[in-house]
Design brief:
The chain has 163 residues and is α+β, with helices and mostly antiparallel strands. It has 4 helices and 7 strands. The chain has a 7-stranded mixed sheet with strand order 1-2-3-4-5-7-6, covered by helices on one side. The radius of gyration is 15 Å and the shape is globular. Residues 1-8 have low confidence and may be disordered.
């Protein structure tokens, strides 16, 4: 699967998580930011979940995964809950190979998936340190909604924004 806009600059593959090496250094920052990232990844692997991924010289350079949510989803950890709706959550989006438009292409894929699944909303949780991604999300029409608290691997509890 490739973006029509950036046809030759990268190749996005859809892969099952059980075929992706959780020990790749690409995931180190996610493991630091989220105390349960490895446990979550392994659980999703057993559930046969897939993600979009790019490689450069055999190294993972980007990763995007989404989750379909229905009207019964609970948002108990959010400071302000969502109203019941069908949503698509961008559960993980990280790009280390910047400047190629990969994040933009992932957002285009997510928007198309939301249309395909007839979702009313799309959201993502992320830390304010991801300023470039936040700028891109705003360009795509995402707006800050609320926040939740997340525990990092070092035990620190930090605020995570929801767009």
């Amino acid at each position: 699967m490739k973006s029509e806009l950036l046809e030759m600059s990268f190749n996005i593959e859809e892969k099952y998580l059980y075929n992706i090496d959780i020990n790749d250094k690409f995931f180190d920052s996610l493991k630091e930011d989220y105390a349960d990232f490895t446990k979550w990844f392994l659980r999703k692997s057993k559930e046969n979940k897939a993600a979009y991924i790019t490689y450069n010289n055999g190294n993972i350079t980007s990763f995007c995964m989404y989750k379909l949510e229905d009207e019964k989803e609970k948002y108990l950890s959010f400071s302000k809950s969502f109203l019941p709706k069908k949503r698509l959550k961008i559960s993980t989006l990280k790009v280390s190979d910047r400047g190629k438009g990969i994040a933009k292409t992932y957002l285009e894929i997510i928007i198309n998936k939301a249309k395909e699944y007839k979702c009313e909303e799309i959201y993502i949780t992320l830390f304010d340190k991801h300023k470039e991604l936040i700028r891109l999300l705003k360009d795509f029409g995402f707006m800050y909604y609320t926040f939740k608290y997340t525990t990092r691997s070092n035990g620190e509890v930090v605020k995570e924004s929801i767009y």
